[in-house]
Design brief:
162 residues; alpha/beta; Rossmann fold; 4 helices; 19% strand
Amino acid sequence: MKDPKNKILILGIGNYLMGDEGIGVHLAERLALEVLPEGVDVVDGGTGGFHLLEYFESYPNVILIDATLDTNPVGTIRKIKPKFSMDFPQAMSTHDIGMKDLVNALQILGTMPVIDLFVVSIESIQQQGIILTPEIEAIIPLLKDKVKELMHELLVTEKVLN
């Protein structure tokens, strides 16, 4: 568990061994190597599920990064602000059930943080290997910039509120 006093959790989820499906964990690993502002933690959440419950309960703001299968062109980045499990994209990769169940549990427990979800459209979850395709690797800098921009916005908002 990271520092529960911190206000923002950047959580990358996905299966590292399934190529582009692991975009969230790839980004989390890269962000973890950077010096981030005080108040921010980064976690590789793997394939999600209930073992992440304590993280969601410990942070008021969670920036979630994941892959999705949808009709958008490969590499499309979308930001979604899900409040309910049905707000998650329908074709959320291999851990769809776990994340939706986790969100339902947080709602029942009354411990739902503010979640900002960045989804990246991928072509397939069948790809095996730890290397991202060139199309997905090429959008990593833009995705990182978007996550860091939101992180800074949230930090400013937190300072204003405190």
